[in-house]
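Instructor's aside before we start: the two examples that follow are unrelated to each other. I chose them only because their records fit on one page, so don't look for a connection. First example below.
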Amino acid sequence: MTALDTIVVFTADGCPHCRALCEDFNRRGVDYREINLSREPLEMARLQDLVWEHRLPVVADHERVSIGFRGQSSSFADLGLE
């Protein structure tokens, strides 16, 4: 991550929890960079450097990484990423 990427959100097409998280951030005016793994599959290596779980969404905010949104997440298998 660079200094400009204060918050990075890893998402994928078809993930309702990813969509809900991004909608929440947009509604609250949170600045973030979205990395959609369905469209940028090479970024999977970057995500795997941060977490070992195969679930989305993932939010990386400097050293802090969280998985899911409001207690919900989608597996990579459910999203066709495995």
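Example two begins here.
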Amino acid sequence: MDLGIISIGKLKSGPLQELQNDYKKRILKLGKNIGINDLQIKEGFISKKKSVNERKVEEGQFFEKNLNGENYNIFLDETGDQFNSLEISDLLSNKLQDSSKIDFFIGGPDGFEKETLNHSDKLISFGKVTWPHMLLRVMLLEQLYRGITIIKNHPYHRN
């Protein structure tokens, strides 16, 4: 099981980075065959002096450069389908049979350009409220951990 997270914004030292690292470690402890790669681009790479549309185009170029057509590409976007934890577990289980890797893409504060979203195999939303993209990364890692524990019948997810 090979998972990737490609995102805008690098977590600075602090509680969110500690949580992110904790969930990565937990995921890796669940099995020798589980890998997780995290590619982050510093927000400074994308000029804040540019318009929202110009920033989204630059971010889109970063995402498109990191797309792999052989992987199952999931974009986290407010327009996506909402999944519960069991559905995320099913998605992981089913898609990892078809693809060698699942990549999750998290956009910057302004979201994704429509053209970039056309490259996704699946759009997932974490609800109707707006989440800071840094917090969303930690939330995604927790759900990936939870989904894998469901697959492995680990007691973390209680029914």
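Strands lie at 2-8, 35-41, 72-82, 101-106, 122-125.
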